[in-house]
Amino acid sequence: MRVGDTLPPLEIPVTRTLIVAGAIASRDYQDVHHDAVLAREKGSPDIFMNILTTNGLVGRYVTDRLGPHTVLRKVAIRLGAPNHPGDTMTLTGTVTALDGATAEIGIVGANGLGRHVTGTVTVSLRPGAAA
To answer: What is the mean pLDDT of the chain?
Structure first.
């Protein structure tokens, strides 16, 4: 692994089930994550994904790409365009820093509206991790 290396992209279909299940799993019962009528009343075209679901998907992306020996040390993300049902979010990553067994990965998750998530993930690469 070298600075500048890219991780293979991951396309995630954004389904109504994914959005609602993620909200329930993270105990986020805000109506905008499960009730389309109330989300529309509040100005959104539909329900949208919460940040905790996005955070989990970012972590999954990095560990799936780097292997089971990868340990997440820090996930720092910022949301942008919402993920609505029927769209696809494509996660991409680039190695931005290396220090021994620690790597920093710059992350972008884009959908049809633009960038849904941007940020960095810091990982420890234990022996056996993908390089």
So the answer is: 94
**E strand or H helix that includes residue 61:** helix 51-66
Q: Using CB atoms within 10 A of its CB, is residue 5 exposed (0-12), middle (13-18) or buried (19+)? A: middle
Is residue 47 within 8 A of residue 85, CB to CB? The reply is yes
Among 56, 52, 54, 68, residue whose Cα is nearest residue 124: 68
E strand or H helix that includes residue 66: helix 51-66
Separation in Å, CA 76 to CA 29, 30, 131 = 23, 22, 22
State how far the Cα of 5 lies from the Cα of 39, in Å rounded to an integer. Answer: 39
Rounded Cα–Cα distance for residues 70 and 85 (Å): 31
pTM reported for the whole predicted model: 0.91
Helix/strand/coil for 63: helix
Question: DSSP characters for 22-56?
Answer: HHHHTT---GGGT-HHHHHHTT-SS----HHHHHH
Q: Span 62-82, mean pLDDT?
A: 95
